[in-house]
Every structure is written in structure tokens, then in C-alpha cells.
## 1
Amino acid sequence: MPPLPDPKGVFLNVPYDKEFSSLYVAYIVGLIQLGLAPHLASEIPGGKRRLDRIFELIQSCRFSIHDLSRVEVSPGPSSAPRFNMPLELGMTITWEMLNPDQHTWFVWESEPYRLQQSVSDLNGTDANIHNGTPEGVFSRLRNALGRDRPPPVPQMRKVYDLVNSSLNSIFLRNGTRNPYDRSVFLDLCSMSLSLGAFYPPARRAV
């Protein structure tokens, strides 16, 4: 039997590509500003196969966010549809159905009604539409996960701008330009948390 999930833990199921990196940073900043702890599959060191690590991470988190905005509905000849995110969402839905009091999942999209095309089995599920912008991510995070007077979107944007402007120095320090690298992810979380001294994160009701 797995241990009880971290009540602040949020598993981030997002595409690991360059085009998504600005929203990826927005998720990290927004969640930490809401007093939550984001987690990525890439932060766990190897050993077991990747799918087992992902499932264990999902089980350890009270919440999960599944951003399907980069799933290609009609891919061109040089691209391929992305199945990792729907696969991890399916694993999460199964876990939540078997353990309804231990996990809550949310689906994010960039456009209204697109979810009905990409994953029609989720018809009836309300997607959080972020419109492909950091402000959209912050607004939807506040609505879905905010508690006890969450910080306003302009404040979250200030923290985001500071963190995002430091991305190149974080890359240099870690010897990689991959924003989804484990060391870069941990530095992004650490910096977002440290800025709470100037922009205090929201208190969450226990």
C-alpha cells in the first residue's frame, strides 16, 4: 500500500519541448506562489524504468495537472502526435478511481473545445483554458488550487519575470540548456520559493 500523498504535492504532466518552456516556468512559479510543491518525472534519479517512476510520483502527490495543449490533433508530415501526456493522464485517472480520496487531477488546454478533439473520452470534463499565456496559467491555477486569498495575477507575473530572466544563468550554472533537466527544475523551484521573501506565497488552509 503506497504512503499517503503529500497534501501540497502537484505532479506536472507537461510536454518537454522548447515551445512550452515559458508556460512550464509559469506552472512552477504559480504553484509555489500558491504554497504548493510542483514535481516532475525528470526530478527522480534513475534505476527503475521511467513508467514505474512516473506512477510512483503520481501516487505521492495529492494533485496533478495534465497540460494537453501540445498534443497534436492533426500532425504534419514532419511531426508526430504526442502520446506521453494522455498516457500519464490515463494512469492518473485509474489511480484516482481506485483511490478517490487521495488524488485530484485537472486538465489544462490552450483553446476551448480542443479537448473534445484530442481526447474525446474526456467529454464532460471541464478543461482549464490558459490561452497559451503565463497569465492564463496563473488565473486558472488560482481558480483550481488557490485557497485563503491567493496572490493576485500581477504579483505572480512579477515573480515569473524575475525567475524567467534568470533562466540563462541557471542554464550556465548547471551546464545544460534543457529547462526540464532535473537540476534546472530544482533551481527554478528554489528560486521561486526564495522570492517568497519579497512576494509571500499564499497560505493554504489545512
## 2
Amino acid sequence: MLTIKPITLTGSLVQLEPIKESHENELYAAAQDESIWTYNGSNAYGERFYRWFNKAITAPTHLPFIVRRISDQKIIGSTRYYDINSENHRLTIGYTWYIPEVWGSAVNPECKLLLLKYAFEEAQVNRVQFSTDSRNSRSRAAIKKLGAIEEGVLRQHMVLEDGFVRDTVVFSIIKPDWEQVKAGLQARLKKEKPPSR
């Protein structure tokens, strides 16, 4: 059976830590840039944060993480495993957001490398799925750049908090893809990391 246990995942730029109550205030501060939430299926801006946080720490098939930048120990976002399906050895990675200053940096590829490596090499999943709003071209490009395969569009798939009915684009990485995806992410990180001091 697939077992995903709360675990801290550490890279050279970021550390992913299971969300705890003690993270609430710093995570709230990180979430207060409205541009983060334009196409996000959830919204943690302003007072909505408390509902988002409560759902994150109580959802039964979710394992949410804070993303901590190692250089200054600052919380810069959140991501999670969700829809963890033990019987079929699959899960989804998503609910990912970062402060705008790290968009386009090595933060996202390193986060995804840590999450995918644990999923495929420790938890022994067969499939990792990613889903995003069809309007979110930045997210779609980032998922494709990971090496994930676009599988199709789920039409009128979700009703967002503002009432908009969104189409969802689905991507996946499966076990036979993993070694090539891993090599690609490792190569990207070698290029994108800042020079050591």
C-alpha cells in the first residue's frame, strides 16, 4: 500500500516542512499579495487565509507543506500532495503558490524535484498528476517545463470562489518518465542556481 508520511524535504535552496499551527502568522504574511491568487483554485488573500489554512491542515487526503527559503529561513509559499490514492498508487501535486519575488527562479524546479523524488523513489507511486486553470499560461508552461505530459482538458471542471466556472488542464508524470524528468530538473538546477559565495 502507498504510504505518504509527513516528512521534511530539504534541498539546497528550499526546505519543505509539513504545515503546522505555528506557521500560521508567517504564512499569512507571505500570502498577502493579490497577484498570487489570480488563477489559483483556492484563495488565501486577506481574511480568506484562515479558511484556506484550516482546510490545509485538516483535509484527510492532503499533505501540505510550507516552502522555506534556506538562505534567510523565510517562508515563501506553500505546496502539497493531495488526492493521495493508496489503492492505485497515485497522487496529485498542487495548491502551489510562491511570493512573486521568486517566480521564474530555481525555487519551483527544486520544490518539484524534492516532491517528485520522494513520491517516485520513497513512496513508490506510479503516477503524479498536476492540474491547472486553462487560463493560467504561466502555470501551464511551468508544468510542461518539468517534463509532465499534457493529457487533456476537463471542461467546466471547477466553480471558483468568485463563481467563475473554470476548465482544468491535466498533466501527469508516470513512473517510466521519472528518470528522464529527474535528469532534466537536475540539469536545470545546475544552470539556474546562483553562484556559490
## 3
Amino acid sequence: MWRSLGAVIRLQIELDRLKESEQSRYRHELIRGVERLHVTPDGCLGPANEGYVIDIHHAAHPRSRSNGTNHLSIGFTGHYDAMRERFGSHVGLGVAGENVIVERPGLTTVADLGDELRFELADGTTLYVAQPQVMRPCAPFTRFCLADERPPAEELRAGLQFLDDGMRGFKGIPQSSAVLAVGAWLYARAD
């Protein structure tokens, strides 16, 4: 059985690393929205002109930190609502860098995702994503959310805690290749 989670409303790639180190500035300007997302076990590609732009997490990206496992990252609109409420309007939809944003109110936990996700595409094909897990927040993204490059340690720690447990998004391992488009539907295996 599968439980409906919501519709895909945004797709994006990261052109390069959004942070160089835990001390660096968060470079959200390197996130690009795309009309379609070519998802493969090697990573994601976004169509551009006559070719593709390679996501930084793709195994073929020259600056990739790929270790052979290339995740698809997923965020939820309810999490962005909570982040904007806490940090302010500068935390725009997709600024955390997930590849896929799904329309779903409220908070979604890793338990809600189970051990497998399924995207249902308009053409009837499916994309399975295994082993969903929490994407841990980093200090540069937290400082960006706080709008403070040098927050007090306790404020940074509280921000990191707030952004953990999936608030910053989730990631999983694509089990095949597919082309995602806005309107695809996401389901979680319900055991």
C-alpha cells in the first residue's frame, strides 16, 4: 500500500557547492529552477538550451563529492512555511537546495516517508527512491536563515536544532532513471 504525500511543485539543481566549508557563506544563488529534472542513479541533470546542466551531486560533475551514492533530495512546502515563520521571508521556497519540492502542509517526518518513496509521472511511469533519510542542516545554511554571519553560539545551535529532523529536507537513493516534471505525485510506502 502507498500513502499519498503530495504533488511536485518545483524542481531545481545546484550548479556548484552551496558551501565550501562550515565557515563559508551559503551561496543560494547557485540554485537553478528547471522545468524537468532528469533523475538517474548517478545524480540529476537539468535541461538547458540544447544540452543539460549537471547537478553538483551528480557523479559526472567535475566538483562532485559523489562517493558512488547519489541522492535525490526532497523538501516540503509545510517546512518552508515553518522556516519562514521562524526566520523570515528571505527563506524562499527551494532555498535549502532540494531537487524536488512537494506541496504538503504541516511537518513531514522521516517516519512519514517509510523505507521507500514512489513518484508517479504523468505518462504513467514511476520512479522509486529507497532509504529516505534526514538531510542534516549545516552552519552556513543556518546562518543564512538567521540572517547573521556571526550569530552567538547558542543562537546558531538553536537554529541547527530547529532545522534538523527533516526540516531542511530529506534524501533518498533513486532506483532507476526518470524525467520528473511539475505535477508528478509523491507516495510513501505504507506498511
